[in-house]
Write a structure and sequence with these properties.
Radius of gyration of chain A: 23 Å
Oligomer: homodimer
Structural class of chain A: alpha/beta
CATH architecture of the largest domain in chain A: 3-Layer(aba) Sandwich
Number of helices of chain A: 13
CATH superfamily of the largest domain in chain A: Zn peptidases
CATH class of the largest domain in chain A: Alpha Beta
Largest interface: A-B, 67 and 67 residues
Strand order of the largest sheet of chain A: 1-10-12-11-13-16-14-15
Largest sheet of chain A: 8 strands, mixed
Helix content of chain A: 25-40%
CATH topology of the largest domain in chain A: Aminopeptidase
């Protein structure tokens, strides 16, 4: 589009007449869009440090870097580390896989799922049985599954507008597919990547063997959506084809790592604690710019904005960068454990862990009264095109955080593109738009400002 | 993010109790997300045809392709072309430009602005005077401008949440900079690209010499934002540096081209016409996937969805792919001219020309009564996260369309990323997300369905 003066305004008629709040939100968004540090921090984390899988060198460096940046920021009363033991899973050599269809060999892109065991050094070769669900395993039974590779190929449902619903519904194949298929004697599982698009990226993510005896563990890998389409098509022509895959991943002993915490002491009620955070660890195929570098730098930005606009919170604000969300959740568990031990009173916690995309609003875990109070602030956010104040999941690292009375929230960015990048090799810095990232930080800061001022 | 079942729902409590409308919108969105053709059409337009600047081979091919696709779709009662004479501007050889700062030479990325004249074959070399606004020219006057290249370097204002406001406010430099600087004896103008980001893409777009005598025309080009930053910095150190640029663009005689129109005849009131469209032409540096391939295929998709859900509109629906929006607006003018000549009664017109990003809503040119009626449908759109029902600009091709009583609307997608791509070499197919494109088409279809059913 072009042609001359384009004059339209998203009219913002606020029914909430707190003009100081309107001004404060304006100052917050203005800071974020004109004077923020988050994009630069993310650039460093992504391009200078790289992936941050728990226990990796990158994770260590990210702890040091974010701690140092929070210290120089001058927005915190103290910055400290919280020790936590985390699992250390290592991918090893790059995985290989192909379809052997008679004489025709077709290479496909796979990656071992986090927590998976390796194949033997020679790899696994077996016939494939394609299924659409875990339930189907039961119907097929040991007779049809034993000795085979189970291929979970149910796509994410494109009909959901909210992409996370489709992720939730298709995710059991990745999380529990290997565990369930092993019970029927499968020798491995291949899982369609949790990605709406057809492309060549395999998407990592954790799998769990649950309480399966160790000797029954079978190797499991994600296959790119293009790879899944090819495999499925070839299986229709030749159900007897063979699939080969090889991976050398392994689990080492748990290692010491850290949650990184910056604390602004409350000026009036310092015993009331408000948490804002993301998770510092990422999967290892890329630098985790959306998942969850974005959430970390946005959380740090909250403190930076408060400093720049001169806002002194009444309650204690903690920016918490959790370790090990992706494959264990040990950072979140440790934070909760110490909070209970120290008798801390958390009144609010927010996590940003859905990507650095244009923010649309929040989902809340809150009692009805608190939710009703918060929902009244919705009009204040209208000028910033924030419109979702829903009840729902907050964030993996805070979901178990309990306190006398606590409201928990998740930032809800636009979800359409998230699964193009999620846990894959293309979750890189160039996939993050600076303005979208900044708008997310401003949106988080604005809600924290309001809750700090008015309570829950 | 990862960890187990993520359960949140954007609750959609509709106060509008037309359950058939709710069902119809659900069917529309479902079709768009599971069974649409628009992404495939765009793939062809972008990757098989390429740029579609008015008068180019690409524009011709796009006319043929979209007409043929509309014919085979089987959704229209007739598909036809509307003749229109359009300007033919040709970029010629790739432009070159550098800063000569003493002995140091720095190449920078530029592109001639659409409609600009060429430099001489040797190029232009001159001292540079940097300004922030057209108004500043007046203050400087002929004395300080004559013989120099004027460098317009006012950035797009990052503080606006709505990116188009910043585009509007910075756009005068591109549209009128050359015309105004010529009056003070400048030998050329260099304009900072209309792009929030710092990158190496020069962004094209039309310039106008207005009623300046032809002999006073001076060449004008856009410089990438990185180039603008470098030039500005070097000018601070050495205001006497020289800038060189060379471009060989030229204007040929107007040529015959076409608007492409598909028409579904209304089942009850066929004389009432509803238009939905985008513009088929694009700038020439890329394939114009967002601007405005997206709008064209979304408009075509409206007819496809109606066919698939079996909806027969009461009023006549015209899908109009306008030619020459970018550098003349002749397609829109011609459509309007023929509408008046044929005494047509348009009740509604909508354009999608703001990119194929996640839709947020609409902006309306409507009388208060019609606007109030339409605004009542807002709740029907909540499940689809559509929340902007604003008054404002509709679209360049329909803005002058007049009728007895007409409502005009523009689709309003999320605007944050648009100017990363707008008129630049990276406005390509890979920058468009399939789901975002489809959601836009569904949103357009839903509004057309409601207006068709209830009137304005």
């Amino acid at each position: 589009m072009k042609r001359i003066a384009i004059l339209f305004l998203f009219t913002s008629v606020s029914t909430f007449s707190q003009s100081t709040d309107e001004e404060q939100l304006k100052a917050i968004y203005n800071q974020a869009l004109t004077n923020s540090k988050c994009y630069g921090w993310l650039d460093h984390m992504s391009n200078k440090i790289g992936h941050r899988l728990s226990g990796s060198t990158g994770a260590e460096k990210a702890v040091e870097y974010t701690k140092a940046q929070m210290e120089v920021l001058g927005a915190f009363d103290k910055v400290y580390l919280q020790e936590v033991m985390v699992p250390k899973w290592i991918r090893g050599e790059k995985e290989t896989a192909y379809i052997q269809n008679g004489k025709k060999k077709t290479d496909v892109a796979i990656c071992a799922l986090g927590g998976s065991v390796a194949t033997s050094k020679k790899g696994v070769t077996a016939e494939v049985i394609e299924v659409q669900s875990l339930k189907e395993l039961e119907t097929l039974g040991t007779e049809k599954i034993k000795g085979k590779i189970v291929f979970f190929n149910r796509p994410m449902n494109p009909a959901n507008v909210e992409a996370f619903l489709s992720y939730r519904d298709a995710g059991d194949q990745r999380r529990s597919g290997a565990k369930e298929a092993a019970k029927y004697g499968a020798v491995g599982t291949i899982v369609r990547s949790l990605n709406f698009r057809l492309d060549d990226f395999p998407h990592a993510g954790a799998t769990s063997y649950g309480d399966l005896p160790k000797e029954q563990y079978i190797p499991t890998a994600a296959i790119s959506t293009n790879g899944a389409e090819i495999l499925s098509k070839q299986l229709k022509d030749n159900p007897g084809l063979k699939f080969f895959f090889k991976q050398s991943c392994y689990q080492e002993a748990d290692v010491l790592s850290y949650n990184v915490i910056g604390e602004i002491k409350g000026s009036k009620t310092p015993d009331n604690i408000m948490v804002v955070g993301g998770h510092l660890d990422s999967w290892d195929l890329a630098d985790g710019s959306h998942d969850d570098g974005a959430g970390c730098v946005q959380s740090m930005e909250v403190a930076s904005i408060f400093k720049n606009i001169g806002y002194k919170p009444k309650n204690t604000i903690r920016v918490v960068l959790f370790m090990n969300e992706e494959n264990g959740g040990k950072g979140g568990d440790k934070y909760q454990e110490l909070s209970l031990k120290n008798n801390e009173n958390h009144i609010f916690a927010m996590e940003s862990d859905s990507g650095g995309f244009t923010p649309r609003g929040f989902s809340f875990e809150a009692d009805d009264k608190s939710y009703a109070k918060i929902a009244k602030w919705k009009s204040l956010f209208e000028p910033y095109l924030i419109h979702v104040f829903a009840k729902g999941h907050s964030g993996s690292d805070i979901q178990d955080l309990s306190s006398k009375r606590i409201v928990k929230a998740g930032l809800r960015p636009d979800s359409q593109r998230y699964f193009d990048y999620h846990h894959a090799a293309n979750d890189t810095f160039d996939a993050v738009n600076k303005r979208e990232l900044e708008l997310g930080a401003a949106t988080m800061t604005s809600l924290i400002y309001l809750i700090d001022k008015y309570g829950i």
